[in-house]
């Protein structure tokens, strides 16, 4: 098992290096000169002498392979340079905004779990009943409505018309309600249907008939056996989507003026703040890959046969 875990951790390194190289190449091929973008953000006229000085300061006059090697070394030290706008270290700026994004992502995931598990389970138990039809409607709505449109719709009803919840910003738990619901709805739609399908498949297995024949209580069968097995794919999916939540909350943060990392990234694109953009792209890759690794380790904990299968294919 230890060898399997070590190999999975080592497999992350080439993925992150490839992402960093791809990001480096795209910036070099882009129409924006980092030195010129810095001078524009600082409101300095970009004449040839000043541009040459800034290119030398940023190391842009060195060979590309040297520039890439230096950028990788700096990123390994969590040195992403200075923001063109605030003149503060990018990592420091990111760490100030990351807690807000983490709070929004985890609150959305918890909300999705609390809603999708009972609805998905009951819709399978009472197939073609009222709960099942309501869950289908909820899944349809969550899958079809764009996130930004849902966010504005919730703001219109609950903030503008009813004046129950604040429109924007971060502070009390009330500020967290609308962004969390907006971000969680698509997860609820996905995992409600996933859990329903998995439970229905488990109900057709022979061990269910055997348990009933032995006289085990129906509630015990449903909760101890069916739900425990059926929820495993959902847990895997939630872990894989955690990275997407951490990096994909850009639209929600922008709609609700949530002071998170995603909103900071959008502002950096507008201001052509290249160091911040580089940091966001690389951290997004690390979040997604890291969450996938956690899912693999969780699956290994739930089913140790995975490591034995890996050794058998070698």
Helix/strand structural class: mainly alpha
Which superfamily, in CATH terms, is the homologous superfamily of the domain at 95-272?
MetI-like
Order of helices and strands: HHHHHHHHHHHHHHH
Residues in helices, as a percent range: over 70%
Broad shape: flat
What kind of sheet is the major sheet?
Answer: none
Low-confidence stretches: 309-314
What is the CATH architecture assignment of the domain at 95-272?
A: Orthogonal Bundle
Beta-strand percentage range: under 5%
Radius of gyration: 24 Å
Q: What name does the CATH topology of the domain at 95-272 carry?
A: MetI-like fold
Give a structural overview.
This protein has about 325 residues and is an all-alpha fold. It has a domain at about 95-270: MetI-like (MetI-like fold). It contains 15 helices and no strands.
What are the defining features of this structure?
79% helix; disordered C terminus; mainly alpha; flat; MetI-like fold; 15 helices; 314 residues
Structure described in brief:
Helices cover 79% and strands 0% of the residues. It has 314 residues and is mainly alpha-helical.
Topology (elements, then pairings):
Elements: H1 2-10, H2 12-29, H3 34-41, H4 48-58, H5 64-76, H6 90-125, H7 130-144, H8 147-161, H9 173-203, H10 206-213, H11 218-247, H12 250-255, H13 261-271, H14 274-302, H15 305-312
């Amino acid at each position: 098992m230890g060898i399997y875990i070590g190999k999975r951790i080592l497999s992350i390194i080439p993925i992150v290096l490839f992402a960093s190289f791809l990001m480096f190449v795209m910036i070099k091929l882009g129409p924006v000169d980092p030195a010129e973008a810095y001078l524009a953000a600082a409101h300095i006229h970009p004449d040839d002498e000043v541009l040459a000085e800034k290119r030398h300061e940023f190391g842009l006059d060195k060979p590309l392979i040297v520039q890439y090697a230096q950028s990788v070394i700096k990123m390994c030290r969590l040195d992403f340079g200075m923001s063109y706008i605030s003149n503060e270290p990018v990592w420091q700026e990111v760490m100030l905004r990351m807690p807000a994004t983490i709070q929004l992502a985890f609150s959305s995931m918890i909300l999705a779990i609390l809603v999708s598990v009972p609805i998905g389970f009951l819709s399978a138990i009472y197939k073609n009943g009222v709960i099942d039809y309501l869950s289908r409607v909820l899944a349809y709505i969550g899958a079809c409505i764009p996130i930004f449109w849902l966010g504005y719709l919730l703001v219109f009803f609950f903030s503008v018309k009813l004046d129950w919840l604040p429109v924007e910003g971060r502070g009390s738990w009330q500020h967290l309600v609308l962004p969390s619901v907006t971000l969680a709805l698509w997860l609820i739609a996905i995992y409600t249907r996933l859990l329903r399908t998995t439970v229905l498949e488990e109900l057709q297995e022979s061990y269910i008939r055997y348990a009933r024949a032995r006289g085990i209580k129906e509630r015990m069968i449903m909760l101890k056996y069916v739900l425990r097995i059926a929820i495993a794919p959902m847990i895997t999916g939630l872990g894989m989507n955690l990275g997407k939540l951490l990096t994909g909350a850009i639209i929600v943060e922008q709609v609700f003026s949530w002071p998170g990392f995603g909103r900071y990234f959008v502002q950096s694109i507008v201001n052509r703040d290249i160091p911040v953009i580089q940091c966001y792209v690389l951290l997004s890759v690390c979040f997604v890959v890291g969450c996938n690794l956690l899912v693999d380790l969780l699956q290994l904990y739930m089913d140790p046969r995975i490591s034995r299968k890996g050794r058998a294919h070698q």
